[in-house]
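Worked example

This section walks through a single chain of length 182. The input is the sequence exactly as stored; nothing has been trimmed or padded.
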Amino acid sequence: MSFTHHIENGQGNRYLNEGGKYNVVILEDYQAQKSQNGAADTMTLNYQVLDGEHEGELIPFDSFYNTEKAAWKIDALLNAVDSDGKSDNYNFQGDGLNPVAEAVINKQINVQVGWRQVTRGKNAGKYFANISQYNPKQASSQPNGEMRPKADTDDTASINQGVDQALENQTTGDPVMDNLPF
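Given that input, the structure is written out below as tokens.
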């Protein structure tokens, strides 16, 4: 088998760097476990943009916590996945948020992406994608022109290196919360 190198295939960024509303597929490489302090069940999902100019780009590390204050986010995700209203009938039992993750992988939804800045830790000052809304899949993705702000401490290449490392560790089974770039 032969391989032909095309320089344009290796250029650019594979992580989304523009805010907006995007049609995405929920990827299979999720993590579901207890929080670092053991107080709550957590789930981390990753998405891939399905259409438009950012097709194929990744939106990593959308974290969910099964706590009273954060349960709205899990409900919003389930409502987006099941726009027919059947999500009221979901009753997940047992193994933390694993059953929820299993129910949503490979589903297509629309997410609204903005940016949040990390305020502490080794990635303080850097910006990462922040999902603020979950909706059923739309006719098309709609970027809004809000580009990822430049990090106060390092450049975007450094952020992407941290995301790459965390995604690599995620597939090896290391706890994702220990490998997040923030």
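What to look for: Helices lie at 71-81, 98-104, 156-171, 176-179.
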